[in-house]
Design goal:
Shape: extended
Oligomer: single chain
Protein name: DUF7869 domain-containing protein
Distance between the termini: 98 Å
Order of helices and strands: HHHEEEHHHHHEHEHHHEEHH
Domain DUF7869: 135-265
Number of domains: 2
Strand order of the largest sheet: 4-5-6-7
Pfam families: DUF7869
Biased composition (Basic residues): 1-13
Helix content: 40-55%
Structural class: alpha+beta
Organism: Spodoptera exigua
């Protein structure tokens, strides 16, 4: 006998209709009248077609979560740099928000004020602030936390237990994992150690772009991630803490080998210049790459860089968000320059020391250890 047909529930239909009305609009978008025409706000550059195009792109769906994720693409949250004195009991701001509108013709991002952004999308500031705050605190995209299918979550553990006991499903899962391993990875993800100002280093970008162009076979892209300074915990932080704790207990450290012995207890030590050769990418990159002011993205505001190799051309795009991809991949080479011409020389190990510095160090050693021999003087 055929299975019994599931009855249609009318209240669910009414609920969906109310949600559809709630997250749609019958009002036309409001064109900005503020007249901003500065570097921070360029509201006057938007015409009626741009306003209508952006409004229709937002209301192309009546799903709240998709609309919130649409807002996250064009609302960038950054940390507060300058703290002003508090007035009364009013708390300070958690973050700073920047709003952008995409034009219809050239798809360029135009920075606008908050009033203009809310007027174009016919939104209230409470909804927009809540989505931006949750994204800034958690770092994740918008998710649905209201209601949901409670039965599916209640019996999920039982369903997973049955699948694990099923021999056939286990074999299929193992077969799929082996297939994925054989395919090999086509992407490399590099994570910085969280130091401030690392994303300003264009020399690192030139070295990675050169490696992707010259030495790769199956790798198609490289992603570099710079975590928020002071708000990210990385595995190397534990190694640094254990090393610093042990070094503080040592009264005197005279030789570099003393540091090496401590580091070898917690990590693998590779000597720069001996185990790892040093190449002069700084000098060569100036001849091949443009200046950072000529990049098609602001290098100091980007949290991620994605380098791709397509048809022999190396392109890069900068992203100001960890999850949303809004940038455009372009080349940053100078006109007529290629990575084939980038041939960095290997630098010699060691740095020449100033004579005045040597005299100061010699006096310090003689103060603590007395007269030193000719071998130490050299």
């Amino acid at each position: 006998m055929p299975a019994r047909k599931r009855p249609y529930i009318k209240p669910r239909r009414k609920k969906e209709e109310r949600a559809k009305i709630r997250y749609s609009t019958d009002q036309p978008p409001i064109k900005p009248t503020c007249g901003h025409n500065t570097k921070a706000y360029q509201c006057s550059k938007l015409n009626s077609n741009d306003v209508l195009f952006f409004n229709r792109a937002f209301y192309a769906t009546n799903d709240k979560i998709k609309q919130d994720n649409f807002n996250l693409k064009y609302v960038i949250s950054t940390a507060i740099i300058r703290r002003r004195p508090k007035i009364g009991n009013k708390p300070g701001r958690l973050m700073a928000l920047k709003y952008f509108i995409r034009k219809k013709i050239n798809r360029a991002l135009i920075p606008v004020c908050k009033k203009a952004f809310l007027g174009i999308l016919n939104l209230k500031k409470g909804r927009l602030d809540g989505v931006a705050k949750r994204h800034y605190v958690t770092g994740s995209i918008a998710v649905e936390n209201r209601g949901g299918d409670k039965k599916m979550h209640a019996y999920r553990s039982r369903k997973e237990a049955v699948e694990k006991q099923d021999v056939c499903s286990t074999c299929l899962q193992l077969r799929e994992e082996i297939t994925v391993e054989k395919k090999g990875s086509e992407k490399i993800r590099l994570m910085a150690d969280g130091c401030g100002g690392q994303n300003k280093n264009s020399i690192l970008l030139s070295a990675l772009m050169n490696w992707l162009y010259m030495n790769t076979q199956n790798i198609k892209s490289i992603e570099i991630i710079f975590p928020v300074t002071g708000h990210s915990f990385l595995p190397p932080d534990r190694v640094f803490a254990l090393t610093e704790k042990q070094i503080r207990k040592m009264e005197t450290i005279l030789l570099p080998e003393d540091y090496m012995d401590v580091l070898k207890e917690h990590a693998t030590v590779l000597r720069l210049g001996t185990d790892i050769p040093i190449f002069d990418f700084k000098t060569q990159s100036r001849n091949v790459l443009k200046s950072t002011q000529s990049f098609h993205f602001q290098i100091t505001k980007c949290k991620r860089f994605i380098i791709t190799l397509h048809r022999g051309a190396v392109k890069i795009r900068g992203e100001m968000s960890y999850y949303s991809d809004t940038g455009v991949a372009k080349t940053i080479n100078k006109r007529g320059q290629s990575f084939e011409k980038l041939n960095p020389e290997m630098l010699l190990n060691g740095v020449p020391v100033n004579e005045a510095k040597l005299i100061d160090v010699r006096k310090l050693l003689e103060t603590h250890f007395g007269q030193i021999g000719p071998r130490c003087r050299n």
